[in-house]
Amino acid sequence: MASAAKGPQDVDITKVTPQQLIQLSKAFESEIDTLTTSYQQLSTAVKKFNDSKVVLGYLKEKANDKDIMVPLTSSLYVPGRMEDNNRVLVEVGAGYFIEESAGKAQDYCDRKAKMISESLQKVAEIIQVKKL
Length: 132
Fold this sequence. Notes:
Layout: H1 18-62, E1 66-71, E2 77-82, E3 87-93, E4 96-101, H2 102-131
Antiparallel strand pairs: 1-2, 3-4
């Protein structure tokens, strides 16, 4: 039985028209641009998880019974008071939140940052191969 998915195929460039070469070049450039954008987005995600871990450490040590600004959206904050600095809400995706201890939330940030970093490395390798 033949496989439906085919891997990359070598092309004899002496048998390809200049227009096809231009199209192929544009396709590669577009793919590299898309991969580069994905790389940048993954890098941003890793940075956000690392920043969140630092903030959780600060909250755990210094924010008990202190006034804070609570984010309602990415640009709207309201004043609040941190009554229990060891319990936080963690967004686990698609608008779902779970209540965790600050330590477990930091572990979650570590796991997510590691997972995304692994994907980041894979995308970097693919970009390098495509640029060759």
